[in-house]
Specification:
Elements lengths: L1 E5 L7 H12 L6 E5 L5 H13 L3 H22 L9 H15 L6 H9 L1 H16 L4 E3 L19 H16 L3 E5 L2 E3 L5 E3 L5 H12 L3 E6 L20 E2 L1 H9 L10 H6 L4 E5 L8 E3 L11 E14 L8 H13 L4 E6 L3 E7 L2 H12 L3 E14 L3 H8 L4 E6 L3 E6 L2
Helix pairs in contact: 1-3, 2-3, 2-5, 4-6, 7-8
The chain binds aspartic acid and magnesium ion.
Aspartic acid binds next to loops.
Length: 421
Protein backbone atom coordinates (compact mmCIF):
# COMPACT_ATOMS: atom_id res chain seq x y z
CA UNK A 1 0.00 0.00 0.00
CA UNK A 2 1.26 3.42 -0.95
CA UNK A 3 0.23 6.81 0.38
CA UNK A 4 0.36 9.88 -1.85
CA UNK A 5 -0.07 13.47 -0.81
CA UNK A 6 -1.00 16.27 -3.18
CA UNK A 7 -0.66 19.78 -1.75
CA UNK A 8 -2.50 22.98 -2.59
CA UNK A 9 -0.26 23.85 -5.55
CA UNK A 10 -0.91 20.47 -7.18
CA UNK A 11 -4.67 21.15 -7.28
CA UNK A 12 -4.61 24.91 -7.76
CA UNK A 13 -6.74 24.90 -10.93
CA UNK A 14 -8.50 22.55 -13.35
CA UNK A 15 -5.31 21.82 -15.30
CA UNK A 16 -3.54 20.85 -12.10
CA UNK A 17 -6.36 18.51 -11.06
CA UNK A 18 -6.19 16.87 -14.48
CA UNK A 19 -2.48 16.39 -13.94
CA UNK A 20 -3.19 14.61 -10.64
CA UNK A 21 -5.46 12.22 -12.56
CA UNK A 22 -2.68 11.76 -15.11
CA UNK A 23 -0.22 10.79 -12.37
CA UNK A 24 -2.68 8.46 -10.67
CA UNK A 25 -3.32 6.61 -13.92
CA UNK A 26 0.20 5.22 -13.60
CA UNK A 27 -0.74 3.57 -10.33
CA UNK A 28 -4.21 2.23 -11.03
CA UNK A 29 -4.58 -1.27 -9.64
CA UNK A 30 -2.11 -0.76 -6.79
CA UNK A 31 -3.50 -0.21 -3.30
CA UNK A 32 -3.26 3.52 -2.83
CA UNK A 33 -4.50 6.18 -0.44
CA UNK A 34 -4.40 9.74 -1.73
CA UNK A 35 -4.33 12.70 0.66
CA UNK A 36 -5.30 16.04 -0.86
CA UNK A 37 -4.96 19.57 0.59
CA UNK A 38 -7.18 22.56 -0.01
CA UNK A 39 -6.91 24.01 -3.51
CA UNK A 40 -4.35 26.74 -4.17
CA UNK A 41 -4.56 29.50 -1.61
CA UNK A 42 -7.96 28.46 -0.23
CA UNK A 43 -6.70 27.94 3.30
CA UNK A 44 -5.43 31.53 3.42
CA UNK A 45 -8.79 32.78 2.17
CA UNK A 46 -10.62 30.69 4.77
CA UNK A 47 -8.36 32.13 7.45
CA UNK A 48 -9.47 35.61 6.38
CA UNK A 49 -13.06 34.40 6.37
CA UNK A 50 -12.69 33.19 9.96
CA UNK A 51 -11.33 36.57 10.94
CA UNK A 52 -14.29 38.32 9.28
CA UNK A 53 -16.75 35.96 10.97
CA UNK A 54 -15.27 36.37 14.42
CA UNK A 55 -15.00 40.15 14.10
CA UNK A 56 -18.54 40.28 12.61
CA UNK A 57 -17.40 42.11 9.50
CA UNK A 58 -20.40 41.25 7.31
CA UNK A 59 -19.11 42.89 4.17
CA UNK A 60 -15.76 41.12 4.31
CA UNK A 61 -17.48 37.87 5.13
CA UNK A 62 -19.64 38.04 2.02
CA UNK A 63 -16.80 39.18 -0.22
CA UNK A 64 -14.46 36.42 0.86
CA UNK A 65 -17.16 33.79 0.64
CA UNK A 66 -17.96 34.85 -2.93
CA UNK A 67 -14.27 34.82 -3.79
CA UNK A 68 -13.86 31.26 -2.46
CA UNK A 69 -17.01 30.07 -4.21
CA UNK A 70 -16.03 31.66 -7.50
CA UNK A 71 -12.60 30.06 -7.34
CA UNK A 72 -14.01 26.58 -6.82
CA UNK A 73 -16.70 27.10 -9.46
CA UNK A 74 -14.00 28.01 -11.91
CA UNK A 75 -12.04 24.86 -11.14
CA UNK A 76 -15.18 22.78 -11.51
CA UNK A 77 -16.17 24.33 -14.82
CA UNK A 78 -12.69 23.63 -16.14
CA UNK A 79 -13.16 19.98 -15.22
CA UNK A 80 -16.67 19.41 -16.40
CA UNK A 81 -17.39 16.81 -18.97
CA UNK A 82 -20.61 16.74 -20.97
CA UNK A 83 -22.45 15.33 -17.97
CA UNK A 84 -23.19 18.75 -16.56
CA UNK A 85 -22.64 20.17 -13.17
CA UNK A 86 -24.98 17.88 -11.24
CA UNK A 87 -22.02 15.64 -10.51
CA UNK A 88 -20.63 18.45 -8.44
CA UNK A 89 -23.90 19.28 -6.64
CA UNK A 90 -22.47 18.31 -3.31
CA UNK A 91 -20.06 21.24 -3.57
CA UNK A 92 -23.06 23.57 -3.59
CA UNK A 93 -24.41 21.77 -0.56
CA UNK A 94 -21.10 22.19 1.22
CA UNK A 95 -21.18 25.91 0.51
CA UNK A 96 -24.68 26.11 1.95
CA UNK A 97 -23.39 24.31 5.03
CA UNK A 98 -20.54 26.81 5.34
CA UNK A 99 -22.92 29.76 4.85
CA UNK A 100 -25.21 28.42 7.59
CA UNK A 101 -22.26 28.11 9.93
CA UNK A 102 -21.31 31.72 9.19
CA UNK A 103 -24.85 32.86 9.97
CA UNK A 104 -24.80 31.42 13.48
CA UNK A 105 -23.73 33.72 16.31
CA UNK A 106 -20.04 33.46 17.15
CA UNK A 107 -19.51 31.05 20.00
CA UNK A 108 -16.45 29.41 21.46
CA UNK A 109 -12.89 30.59 21.14
CA UNK A 110 -11.06 31.73 18.03
CA UNK A 111 -9.17 28.52 17.45
CA UNK A 112 -12.34 26.44 17.64
CA UNK A 113 -14.07 28.64 15.07
CA UNK A 114 -10.97 28.61 12.90
CA UNK A 115 -10.99 24.82 12.67
CA UNK A 116 -14.71 24.58 11.90
CA UNK A 117 -14.37 27.05 9.01
CA UNK A 118 -10.89 26.45 7.61
CA UNK A 119 -11.45 22.69 7.36
CA UNK A 120 -13.94 23.27 4.53
CA UNK A 121 -11.04 23.83 2.13
CA UNK A 122 -9.97 20.20 2.29
CA UNK A 123 -13.52 18.94 2.02
CA UNK A 124 -14.19 21.03 -1.10
CA UNK A 125 -10.99 19.93 -2.78
CA UNK A 126 -11.30 16.23 -2.07
CA UNK A 127 -14.93 16.19 -3.22
CA UNK A 128 -13.96 17.82 -6.48
CA UNK A 129 -10.91 15.61 -7.02
CA UNK A 130 -12.77 12.42 -6.19
CA UNK A 131 -15.64 13.27 -8.53
CA UNK A 132 -13.29 14.27 -11.31
CA UNK A 133 -11.23 11.10 -10.95
CA UNK A 134 -14.38 9.04 -11.32
CA UNK A 135 -15.29 10.96 -14.46
CA UNK A 136 -11.78 10.33 -15.73
CA UNK A 137 -12.27 6.61 -15.21
CA UNK A 138 -10.30 6.27 -11.99
CA UNK A 139 -12.68 4.60 -9.61
CA UNK A 140 -12.15 5.72 -6.05
CA UNK A 141 -13.82 6.15 -2.72
CA UNK A 142 -13.99 9.45 -0.84
CA UNK A 143 -13.58 9.11 2.88
CA UNK A 144 -13.72 11.67 5.66
CA UNK A 145 -10.35 11.79 7.42
CA UNK A 146 -12.08 13.02 10.57
CA UNK A 147 -13.55 9.57 11.10
CA UNK A 148 -10.07 8.10 11.34
CA UNK A 149 -7.63 10.62 12.78
CA UNK A 150 -8.43 11.15 16.44
CA UNK A 151 -6.83 13.92 18.46
CA UNK A 152 -6.93 15.35 21.96
CA UNK A 153 -9.03 18.26 20.70
CA UNK A 154 -6.37 21.00 20.79
CA UNK A 155 -7.79 23.32 18.15
CA UNK A 156 -5.44 24.34 15.35
CA UNK A 157 -2.82 21.95 16.65
CA UNK A 158 -4.53 18.66 17.32
CA UNK A 159 -2.32 16.14 19.06
CA UNK A 160 -2.87 12.74 17.58
CA UNK A 161 -4.11 9.94 19.76
CA UNK A 162 -1.85 7.38 18.14
CA UNK A 163 -3.24 4.21 19.64
CA UNK A 164 -6.85 4.90 18.76
CA UNK A 165 -6.00 6.35 15.36
CA UNK A 166 -3.71 3.52 14.28
CA UNK A 167 -6.25 1.01 15.50
CA UNK A 168 -9.18 2.54 13.58
CA UNK A 169 -7.11 2.97 10.43
CA UNK A 170 -5.81 -0.57 10.40
CA UNK A 171 -9.13 -2.18 11.32
CA UNK A 172 -11.62 -0.01 9.47
CA UNK A 173 -9.76 1.71 6.67
CA UNK A 174 -7.17 -0.83 5.56
CA UNK A 175 -9.70 -3.42 4.36
CA UNK A 176 -11.36 -0.76 2.18
CA UNK A 177 -8.07 0.69 0.97
CA UNK A 178 -6.85 -2.73 -0.15
CA UNK A 179 -9.77 -2.94 -2.53
CA UNK A 180 -10.24 0.60 -3.72
CA UNK A 181 -8.28 3.76 -4.29
CA UNK A 182 -9.06 6.13 -1.41
CA UNK A 183 -9.25 9.90 -1.66
CA UNK A 184 -9.15 11.74 1.64
CA UNK A 185 -8.27 15.08 3.23
CA UNK A 186 -5.07 16.22 4.77
CA UNK A 187 -4.93 18.61 7.72
CA UNK A 188 -8.26 17.71 9.34
CA UNK A 189 -9.02 15.40 12.23
CA UNK A 190 -11.45 14.94 15.08
CA UNK A 191 -11.67 15.88 18.75
CA UNK A 192 -12.89 13.45 21.41
CA UNK A 193 -16.31 15.18 21.26
CA UNK A 194 -16.43 14.79 17.48
CA UNK A 195 -15.66 18.34 16.49
CA UNK A 196 -13.31 19.18 13.64
CA UNK A 197 -9.72 19.86 14.67
CA UNK A 198 -6.89 20.85 12.33
CA UNK A 199 -3.32 19.67 12.65
CA UNK A 200 -1.53 23.00 12.07
CA UNK A 201 -0.78 24.81 8.81
CA UNK A 202 0.77 22.64 6.15
CA UNK A 203 -0.44 19.66 8.14
CA UNK A 204 -1.40 17.51 5.15
CA UNK A 205 2.04 15.92 4.97
CA UNK A 206 1.53 14.93 8.56
CA UNK A 207 -1.87 13.43 7.71
CA UNK A 208 -0.21 11.35 4.99
CA UNK A 209 2.31 10.09 7.55
CA UNK A 210 -0.46 9.27 10.03
CA UNK A 211 -2.36 7.24 7.45
CA UNK A 212 0.84 5.52 6.34
CA UNK A 213 1.61 4.61 9.94
CA UNK A 214 -1.84 3.13 10.52
CA UNK A 215 -1.84 1.30 7.19
CA UNK A 216 1.75 0.07 7.53
CA UNK A 217 2.28 1.53 4.08
CA UNK A 218 5.30 0.66 1.97
CA UNK A 219 6.02 4.35 1.25
CA UNK A 220 4.71 7.90 1.29
CA UNK A 221 5.14 10.19 -1.72
CA UNK A 222 4.68 13.91 -1.42
CA UNK A 223 4.09 15.40 -4.87
CA UNK A 224 5.33 18.95 -5.13
CA UNK A 225 6.11 21.65 -7.66
CA UNK A 226 9.83 21.22 -7.00
CA UNK A 227 11.97 18.30 -8.07
CA UNK A 228 12.68 17.21 -4.51
CA UNK A 229 14.28 18.55 -1.34
CA UNK A 230 16.70 21.33 -2.20
CA UNK A 231 19.59 22.49 -0.02
CA UNK A 232 18.08 26.01 -0.01
CA UNK A 233 15.06 27.83 -1.31
CA UNK A 234 15.95 28.38 -4.99
CA UNK A 235 14.19 31.74 -4.87
CA UNK A 236 16.74 32.88 -2.32
CA UNK A 237 19.82 31.01 -3.41
CA UNK A 238 20.39 30.68 -7.12
CA UNK A 239 22.88 27.87 -6.70
CA UNK A 240 20.46 25.70 -4.74
CA UNK A 241 20.77 22.00 -5.63
CA UNK A 242 18.48 19.02 -5.28
CA UNK A 243 19.39 16.42 -2.68
CA UNK A 244 18.96 12.79 -3.79
CA UNK A 245 18.84 11.22 -0.37
CA UNK A 246 18.50 12.19 3.26
CA UNK A 247 18.27 10.08 6.33
CA UNK A 248 15.40 10.56 8.71
CA UNK A 249 17.46 12.36 11.32
CA UNK A 250 18.73 14.99 8.93
CA UNK A 251 15.21 15.49 7.61
CA UNK A 252 13.90 15.89 11.16
CA UNK A 253 16.64 18.38 11.92
CA UNK A 254 15.99 20.41 8.76
CA UNK A 255 12.24 20.44 9.40
CA UNK A 256 12.87 21.46 13.00
CA UNK A 257 14.89 24.45 11.84
CA UNK A 258 12.09 25.46 9.53
CA UNK A 259 12.71 23.84 6.14
CA UNK A 260 9.22 24.10 4.73
CA UNK A 261 9.53 21.30 2.23
CA UNK A 262 8.78 18.77 4.95
CA UNK A 263 6.34 19.36 7.77
CA UNK A 264 8.19 18.99 11.10
CA UNK A 265 5.98 16.26 12.54
CA UNK A 266 5.87 14.15 9.40
CA UNK A 267 9.09 12.19 9.66
CA UNK A 268 8.81 10.81 13.19
CA UNK A 269 5.90 8.38 12.56
CA UNK A 270 7.49 7.24 9.31
CA UNK A 271 10.85 6.70 10.95
CA UNK A 272 9.30 4.64 13.71
CA UNK A 273 7.92 2.19 11.14
CA UNK A 274 10.76 2.53 8.68
CA UNK A 275 8.49 3.82 5.93
CA UNK A 276 10.46 5.70 3.26
CA UNK A 277 9.31 9.14 2.18
CA UNK A 278 9.68 10.38 -1.38
CA UNK A 279 9.47 14.05 -2.29
CA UNK A 280 8.67 14.11 -6.01
CA UNK A 281 7.71 16.55 -8.72
CA UNK A 282 4.14 16.46 -9.97
CA UNK A 283 5.42 18.22 -13.08
CA UNK A 284 7.72 15.39 -14.02
CA UNK A 285 6.79 11.91 -12.93
CA UNK A 286 10.01 10.45 -14.35
CA UNK A 287 12.25 12.51 -12.11
CA UNK A 288 13.64 10.62 -9.14
CA UNK A 289 12.99 13.16 -6.41
CA UNK A 290 14.43 12.87 -2.92
CA UNK A 291 14.27 9.75 -0.81
CA UNK A 292 14.16 10.09 2.96
CA UNK A 293 14.86 6.78 4.67
CA UNK A 294 17.34 4.93 6.85
CA UNK A 295 19.26 3.55 3.94
CA UNK A 296 20.30 6.95 2.63
CA UNK A 297 23.96 7.89 2.64
CA UNK A 298 24.25 11.60 2.53
CA UNK A 299 26.69 14.19 1.44
CA UNK A 300 27.84 15.47 4.80
CA UNK A 301 29.63 18.49 3.39
CA UNK A 302 26.67 19.93 1.49
CA UNK A 303 25.51 23.14 3.18
CA UNK A 304 21.79 23.57 3.88
CA UNK A 305 20.26 27.02 4.23
CA UNK A 306 16.92 27.47 5.93
CA UNK A 307 15.23 30.84 5.94
CA UNK A 308 12.43 31.67 8.31
CA UNK A 309 10.63 34.98 7.88
CA UNK A 310 8.30 36.85 10.20
CA UNK A 311 10.39 36.26 13.26
CA UNK A 312 10.15 38.42 16.34
CA UNK A 313 13.15 38.92 18.58
CA UNK A 314 12.23 39.64 22.18
CA UNK A 315 14.75 40.61 24.86
CA UNK A 316 13.81 40.62 28.49
CA UNK A 317 15.61 42.11 31.44
CA UNK A 318 14.58 42.42 35.05
CA UNK A 319 13.30 45.80 36.18
CA UNK A 320 15.92 46.07 38.92
CA UNK A 321 18.72 44.95 36.55
CA UNK A 322 19.34 41.88 38.62
CA UNK A 323 20.50 38.71 36.90
CA UNK A 324 18.08 36.58 34.96
CA UNK A 325 18.03 33.38 36.96
CA UNK A 326 16.23 30.05 36.89
CA UNK A 327 12.96 31.18 38.39
CA UNK A 328 12.70 33.95 35.79
CA UNK A 329 13.31 31.45 33.01
CA UNK A 330 10.69 29.19 34.46
CA UNK A 331 8.22 32.04 34.49
CA UNK A 332 9.11 33.12 30.94
CA UNK A 333 8.62 29.64 29.56
CA UNK A 334 5.37 29.19 31.43
CA UNK A 335 4.06 32.38 29.84
CA UNK A 336 5.28 31.37 26.37
CA UNK A 337 3.61 28.02 26.72
CA UNK A 338 0.40 29.62 27.95
CA UNK A 339 0.29 31.95 24.92
CA UNK A 340 1.20 29.17 22.52
CA UNK A 341 4.63 30.36 21.38
CA UNK A 342 7.53 28.08 20.56
CA UNK A 343 11.05 29.41 20.93
CA UNK A 344 13.08 29.11 17.72
CA UNK A 345 16.32 30.39 19.22
CA UNK A 346 17.39 31.75 22.60
CA UNK A 347 20.37 33.30 24.29
CA UNK A 348 21.06 34.69 27.71
CA UNK A 349 23.55 37.15 29.07
CA UNK A 350 24.01 38.39 32.62
CA UNK A 351 21.03 40.71 32.68
CA UNK A 352 18.97 39.79 29.69
CA UNK A 353 17.32 36.83 28.09
CA UNK A 354 16.59 37.00 24.36
CA UNK A 355 14.59 34.68 22.20
CA UNK A 356 13.04 34.45 18.78
CA UNK A 357 9.50 33.31 18.07
CA UNK A 358 7.24 33.19 15.02
CA UNK A 359 5.19 36.34 14.79
CA UNK A 360 1.57 35.41 15.44
CA UNK A 361 -0.38 38.60 14.77
CA UNK A 362 -3.39 37.64 16.88
CA UNK A 363 -1.33 36.74 19.89
CA UNK A 364 1.88 38.76 19.80
CA UNK A 365 0.65 41.93 21.49
CA UNK A 366 -1.00 39.94 24.27
CA UNK A 367 2.28 38.11 24.86
CA UNK A 368 4.29 41.33 24.96
CA UNK A 369 1.77 42.90 27.37
CA UNK A 370 1.93 39.90 29.63
CA UNK A 371 5.74 39.82 29.66
CA UNK A 372 5.83 43.57 30.31
CA UNK A 373 4.03 43.01 33.60
CA UNK A 374 7.16 41.42 35.01
CA UNK A 375 10.06 42.40 32.74
CA UNK A 376 11.51 45.20 30.73
CA UNK A 377 10.79 44.17 27.17
CA UNK A 378 12.54 45.13 23.92
CA UNK A 379 11.07 43.86 20.67
CA UNK A 380 12.45 43.71 17.13
CA UNK A 381 9.71 42.78 14.67
CA UNK A 382 10.07 41.45 11.16
CA UNK A 383 13.34 39.61 11.56
CA UNK A 384 14.53 36.74 9.44
CA UNK A 385 16.21 33.70 10.89
CA UNK A 386 18.81 31.94 8.81
CA UNK A 387 19.94 28.50 9.88
CA UNK A 388 22.91 26.97 8.12
CA UNK A 389 23.92 23.35 8.42
CA UNK A 390 27.48 22.60 7.31
CA UNK A 391 28.18 26.29 6.75
CA UNK A 392 30.35 27.34 3.87
CA UNK A 393 31.79 30.69 4.86
CA UNK A 394 32.05 32.44 1.49
CA UNK A 395 28.51 31.60 0.45
CA UNK A 396 27.18 32.55 3.86
CA UNK A 397 28.81 35.98 3.91
CA UNK A 398 27.40 36.59 0.45
CA UNK A 399 23.94 35.74 1.71
CA UNK A 400 24.05 38.08 4.68
CA UNK A 401 26.01 40.93 3.19
CA UNK A 402 24.43 44.31 3.94
CA UNK A 403 22.18 42.90 6.65
CA UNK A 404 22.32 43.55 10.38
CA UNK A 405 22.87 40.46 12.47
CA UNK A 406 20.80 40.92 15.65
CA UNK A 407 21.70 37.62 17.24
CA UNK A 408 24.01 34.78 16.34
CA UNK A 409 24.76 31.29 17.55
CA UNK A 410 27.39 28.91 16.24
CA UNK A 411 27.42 25.22 16.98
CA UNK A 412 29.84 22.72 15.49
CA UNK A 413 27.87 22.19 12.30
CA UNK A 414 24.84 24.43 12.66
CA UNK A 415 24.96 28.22 12.70
CA UNK A 416 21.93 30.38 13.32
CA UNK A 417 21.63 34.06 12.56
CA UNK A 418 18.81 36.48 13.25
CA UNK A 419 18.78 39.23 10.67
CA UNK A 420 16.97 42.53 11.01
CA UNK A 421 14.74 43.69 8.19
N1 LIG B 1 -4.44 23.38 3.49
C1 LIG B 1 -3.64 23.40 4.67
C2 LIG B 1 -2.68 24.57 4.61
O1 LIG B 1 -2.61 25.22 3.57
C3 LIG B 1 -2.91 22.13 4.91
C4 LIG B 1 -1.86 21.80 3.89
O2 LIG B 1 -1.89 22.34 2.79
O3 LIG B 1 -0.99 20.99 4.19
O4 LIG B 1 -1.99 24.82 5.55
MG1 LIG C 1 -2.00 24.08 1.57
Amino acid sequence: MKVFKFGGASVKNAEAVKNVAHILKHFVGEPLLVVVSAMGKTTNALERLTEAYVTKDEKQKQDILIEIKRFHDEVISGLLSGKGSHTYDDIDNLFIELECLLETPVEGNYDYNYDQIVSFGEVFSTRIVSTYLKEAGISNRWIDARNFIQTDGTYREGRVDWNTTADIISKKLKPIALKQLIVTQGFIAQSPDKQTVTLGREGSDYSAAIFAYGLDAESVSIWKDVSGVMNADPKRLQKAVKVDGLNYNTAIELAYYGATVIHPKTIQPLKSKNIPLYVRSFLNINEKGTEVSTSQKEDTSLPFYIFKDQQTLISLSTRDFSFIIENHLKEIFTILNEYGFRVNLMQNSAISFSFVVNDKPQKMQALIDRLSEDFQVAVVHNCQMLTVRNPEKAQLSELISGKTVAMEQRGSNVWQLVLEA
